[in-house]
Write a structure and sequence with these properties.
Number of strands of chain A: 0
Helix content of chain B: over 70%
Helix content of chain A: over 70%
Low-confidence stretches of chain B: none
Strand content of chain B: under 5%
Oligomer: heterodimer
Largest sheet of chain A: none
Shape of chain A: rod-shaped
Shape of chain B: globular
Largest interface: A-B, 28 and 36 residues
Mean pLDDT of chain B: 89
Structural class of chain B: mainly alpha
Number of domains of chain B: 1
Structural class of chain A: mainly alpha
Order of helices and strands of chain B: HHHHHHHHH
Number of domains of chain A: 1
Amino acid sequence: MGGYGVYVWGAYALTLTAMGGEVALLMWRRKMLLDTVENAASRAGLGERP
Amino acid sequence: MTRWYRYASPGHAYRLAGRLIPWCAVPAAALFVVGLYLGLVVAPTDFQQGDAYRVLFIHVPAAWMGMLLYVLLAIYAGIGWVFHTRVSSMMASSLSITGTMFTAVALITGSLWGRPTWGTWWVWDARTTSTLILLFLYVGFISLQSAIDDPRRADRAAAVLALVGVVNVPIIYFSVQWWNTLHQGATIRVGGETTMAGSMLAPLLIMIAACWLYSVAVVLARLQTLIREREPLVAVTAVVK
């Protein structure tokens, strides 16, 4: 298994990094937006954190 | 019929996405683990390509997702353009990022497979070139949406590009039949014989299912984010309800 070479491992490493990066960026953006939504909620008098 | 229109409402879409995300994300993670184990540990070495063929367990699903997500993007962008449904346009935006990622992964992993198999990183054959054009279409869609400040106008302009660009998808799919290309023909044929051993086909199909579920989960999570971004009050009331 260890001898598949740089091309195979490189392909899997790249793919998992791309997918992990996409998820991480999305989570970061969602976290950033929570503040915006909280502000909108308090303006609307709802006051709940989603 | 009227029930379908409920999902054109950002509030309904937000709640539905929230319910569906865990049902897709958890099986996707499990299938990735099983697919990687079968593909990297259990599947035998190919007698012609050696171990380099294992790249295909990620290259083929990525290439399929790149094409399928573009078709979905064009459908949602078209619906958003014709019926002025905000959620459809937001779905198209959401699909574009994951589609770009998968198309880029398909091109790079294809290159990593081509080097040991073909002896070159890149050839300008019909399949690879049309897939590169697909990547440019995705990038063009995202750039066009980002370049226009008004989201409604941006959605309309990007929808035109998406609908024009969808003609490239059948070209990618049939390129190996229409032209004499270095790229190999289809391994899995819908309604035809599959030219792959069962021990290699199983991890491939599992990885395709994993990529599908991953895409649904990520696209819906991004849709929720876009609804929060564009219509924060709708998102709040959808959660509070």
